[in-house]
Each structure stands twice: as structure tokens, then as C-alpha cells.
Hints:
- The protein is an alpha/beta fold.
- Helices cover 28% and strands 26% of the residues.
- The chain has helices at 47-53, 144-148, 151-164, 181-192, 204-214, 227-235, 253-256, 281-290, 302-314, 329-341; strands at residues 3-10, 19-26, 35-44, 69-77, 91-94, 97-98, 113-114, 127-131, 135-137, 172-175, 196-200, 218-220, 243-248, 260-268, 293-296, 321-326, 347-351.
- Strands 3, 4, 5, 8, 9, 16 and 17 form a 7-stranded mixed beta sheet that branches.
Amino acid sequence: MPEMNAVVLHLSKPGTPNEARFERIPLLSSPKPGYARVKISAVALNKRDQWIINNTYPNLYDGTVLGCDGMGVLTALGPGASSLYPLLGKRAVILPSVAWGSGGKHAQGPEFRVLGNQPDDGTFSEYMDVLVENVSAAPEGLDDVHLAALPSSGITAWRAVKTRGEVDRGMNVLVTAAGSGVSTFAMQFAVALGARVWTTSSSKDKIDFAVKTIGVGGGVNYKDKDWTSQLAKLVGGNSDRAIDVVIDGSGSLEECIKLLRPRGRYVFFGNTSQRATTLNVQDIRTIYRLQADIRGSTMGSPEEFEEMLAFVQEHKLQPIVSSVRPFTAEGWEQALGELEKGDQQGKIVLKMQ
Length: 353
């Protein structure tokens, strides 16, 4: 049986880190029914990969291939995959949301999961067999590296900004945590939609990068105790309530509601700070008196993925890439080290040799 290189998870004891080995694994002779085979050209790392390796992510499966971001060339179709025949031999991008369900944009179904260890094999391999509904034509204008950086962070940001946040032209939008993959896309999408966008970071360099490269209006250091007042002054106006929509993945609900305008929306897609949130009586009054919305968001549907790809192509958006390394054992270890360090600005990509 032929083999291929892949990054495979090996589970450890609870409370101790798992192992992610770069190793050789078997390659099936052909895709299963309902699947299409993609020869992977480039993949990108995510914070989720680090959490899986650190054994702080739920529902892990031993011996599965990691990774949820990737793109490549469609090379073979299994039985029942004939709808993808026009894409054979062409570049394709992989949707990381598996089994979203029939709810459309409303919400995911009970079988929803993310590629790469739940329990579907992920993108960190030289070939990948993908469900038909998770394969899309690559948008024009992006090379392999930048396209690989797009799927998971792009779809998460698109749903948070457009579907759940309902961001539109002229709005004041705060996207927290400049530098993260999702936040970077969220800023790009909100700017392209015509909003006035602001951000936060403990790094002045990341704020400056967002201003110069993405076009945000400015940002403040979230470690300052009065950062919400600083941001309100930066936005302008006569009130601390200066923001129409907050897009947050850091877990800053208590602070962010201080900035919301009446009927404002706080949309959150994660809690990277892992900080508990406590709303006091005044916070609760603030929410209902403002008639504010608190909306959760995660990944996105196939319909939203196609919308996002079309928007990226229409507005000629370029994903921000921090570094590119070869898909080798050494390249994997170096990329993982960069991810753990956390200083990157944009996505970390591995490119096939």
C-alpha cells in the first residue's frame, strides 16, 4: 500500500501533553463513496492545533491526522462524488465545518464538528479524502500559500462579522485582539464592508500593523485599566458608548459592553484568555436598557463559506501570512514553536515540497 507524510496525533494521559508526530501513514487506493481526493499543496496552523497537542481540547481521537486548514488540487472522485467532476485537476479549497446540518445560516446541527481529530482526519497530510460538500473551487487571485491561510479563520470571521454581527457601511466596529487569525480576517472584512474599525492589543506593533496594512482607525492596549475610555475617545463623539458592533474572541464581555451603543451587538467566537466572565447587577441593567444583543458564533455553513470566498475574490483581499515553511518534520516543529510563542502577525503556513 502506498504511503504519505502526515502529522498524526498520539494521545497521552489526561493532564499531560499529547504527541503530534510527523510520520508516514498508509494512503488508500481510492476515495470512499461520497469523498473526493485532494493532493494538498499548502496547509495552515491554528491555535486549535496547539490546544489539541496540549491536551486541553475535548473529544480527542488517537491516531488521527491533525489540521483544519488546507488547499490543493482535486485528483480523484469516489462513488457518488460526480458533482465535483468539473473541478478535477483544478485547485480546490477545503471547508473545515463538517456536517453543519440543514439549519442554513441559522445554526449548526447536532452532528457538527471541525476537521482534524473529531474524529475526521485533517489537512496535515500530502493527500486528503474530503466529503464532497466540503470541497469548493479556489477563488481567483490567491496563490496556494494565501489560500491555505483562509478557510477556518476566514469562515469564522465572516459569520461573526456579516451573519451574526450584521456589520454594514458607516458602523463603528471593534475587533479585539489584533494579530489573531480570526481577528485579522474580521478587520479585513469589516473594513471592506465600509465600517470604521478599531482594535485592541498589548502589542503596539500589532496595532500599527493593523492600521497600516488593513486600514483600521487605530487601537489601544487592553492591559490599560481605562482602555475602554481610551478607545471611546479615539473613536470620537461625546459618549463612551461609541461602538455599534464588537467582534471578540478574547473573552472581554465585561469591558466591551461599556462601549456598546443602544441596540449594539456583542458577537463572540471564542475565549482565548480562558477567563471566567462575571456580570454584575449594573452590567445586566446595561444590557437590557441598551436593548443590546449578545450573540455567540462559531465557524460557518457551506453557504457562508461560498459567500466568503466570493467576497474575498470581489474585494481582492489577501490573507495575512506570518511565515512559510516546507511540510517536513523540521518545518512542522519550527511552525509549532512559532505558534506556541504567539508573536506571529497572521497565519503560519506549511507548503508541500
